[in-house]
Every structure is written in structure tokens, then in C-alpha cells.
Amino acid sequence: METIGFIGTGHLGYPIAENLLKAGYTLRIYNRTREKALPLEQLGAILVNSPEETAVKGGVVLSLVADDKALEAVATDALVQALGEGGIHVSMSTVSPDISRELSVRHGKHGVLFVGAPVFARPEAAAAKAGNSVISGPAAAKERIRPLLEAGFARNIFDLGEDAGSANVLKLMGNFMIAGALELMAEAFALAEKNGVDPRVAYEMLTTTLFSGPIFRNYGAMILDRKFTGNPSFSAELGLKDMDLVLQTARKSYTPMPLANLVQNRLTTILAKDIHDADWTALASGALEDAGLAV
């Protein structure tokens, strides 16, 4: 099997890298905090000291970093030159559509193909290879990387065409809809509690009938249990970054999104209270507190 570059082994990148190693791929891994990637050496990973050292000429580099700034920091000219003609850079990060489009153009000048392939999965779903991927970019590059996405985390892959930014638009849509569902459930559970209805009974009825998807089941349970803080797998800070990107994209296309403004404010409030170990489910605490309920 070919050697793959991998940049970013955080909460989500780590299980994906682990799956790829177990599938037989050789990984050249760069992580800004080297210590976090050390356990992967036991599975055969090669740890390197810079993003460009992950690349093999004409090969594939997967990157999964926090935001636009972090992606810019690793998607350097040095990385592009190391990949060379026929190389592929796959960005699995949740970033703005604009940065993907810019990088696609910049990479293309050197014969390197760029694919946007943001991950739909929390870490535990990625580890179980039960996640979803949306991809956009050149057709040949997408076909080549499909086995990597499937081996790393993806149960399903959805192709959005050749515009490198399209996958990022859909990823932002998905995260916005999850955030909206968190607010929806928090308000509904607050209504139950304030009117003498056991919210757990309401949760069981609603999430096994009308709202039976995993978002309602999994996140609904976290809201009921007030699991808002402590070693988050997706932090409130990252959630706020995503809502900022949603509204940035909405402004550029003149798309009113009042619910996005509300959940952005909920997340801002969490961080304003200096609750920096909060999962983004903590945005639900706003509706509960507004109703006078304990969090």
C-alpha cells in the first residue's frame, strides 16, 4: 500500500489516522504538538517535523486542522512543491468555502490537485468508520482518494462536483443544522420540565418516533444529562468558529439566517463565561437557564 501524508492528529484526526494504519497504509504524520501523535508510532507511523515532510512525490496528503488559519499554515508552497505534479492535497477540515477555492487555484499552478473532503463524524463515529464524507474537486483525484476515506472513517461518501468549496458549504450547513437541533431540543425539554412532563419520557417518545435520527438520540441524551463540560470531543470554541463561518458565508450570498445568529450568541455566551472545557452541546444551557432551570 502507498505511503500517505497526514497532518493533524487531534480529537478527530487521531482515530482516522489510527484506522488508516490498521488498514495497512504507511503514514507520514505531522502534528503541531508532536507528543499527541507519539502513540501512533507503535502502529507504524513515521512522525516528521514539518507539513512538507509528510509528502511523497505524486502522492496524497490528508490534512485535518482546526480552522482557515491553521490550514493556511500547513498548505504552504513547500508542501505543494514536495507533493509535486500529480500530487493530491485532501482537506478534511471544516473551513470556509473561500479558502478551499483559493488553495485549489494555488495548488493547481504547480500541478497539485486539491479536494475538499470535510468529515461528518464525532471522534467515536470516526473510530467506528461510521462517519460521512462530502467531497468536491477534480474527478480523478476524488476517485483516487475514495479508498482512503472509506478506510479512515467514511461509511458514506457524497460527491458535490468539481467546485472545491462546495463540500465546505454542505459541511457548514450540516453543522448549522446540528446546532439548530441543540437549541430546538433544549427549548422543548425546558417546556416539558416547566409543565410537569418528565423530559426523559418525552425524549424517549420523540426520539424513537418522529425524531429518530442519531443527532436527536445522541445529543438529546447529552442535553438531558447536562453533559456540557469536561474533555469535549467537539468544543464550544470550534462550534463558534463554525457558526462564524456559516454567517460569513450567508452574508456573502445575502442569505438571512436568524437561527444561526441565535446559536452563535449562545456559544459566545458560553465562552464569555470562561467555560473553555465546554462541548458545543453547552449552547443548550442558554435555553434552560432562560427558563429558570438548573444546568
From TrEMBL:
Keyword terms, alphabetized: NAD, Oxidoreductase
Keyword Cell membrane assigned: no
Annotated ranges, domain 6-phosphogluconate dehydrogenase NADP-binding: 3-151
An example Gene Ontology molecular-function term: NADP binding
Organism: Chitinophaga ginsengisegetis
Catalytic residue list: 171
Name of this protein: 3-hydroxyisobutyrate dehydrogenase
Pfam families linked: NAD_binding_11, NAD_binding_2
Gene3D superfamilies in UniProt: N-(1-d-carboxylethyl)-l-norvaline Dehydrogenase, domain 2, NAD(P)-binding Rossmann-like Domain
Domain 3-hydroxyisobutyrate dehydrogenase-like NAD-binding positions: 165-284
Organism taxonomic ancestry: Bacteria, Pseudomonadati, Bacteroidota, Chitinophagia, Chitinophagales
Keyword field contains ATP-binding: no
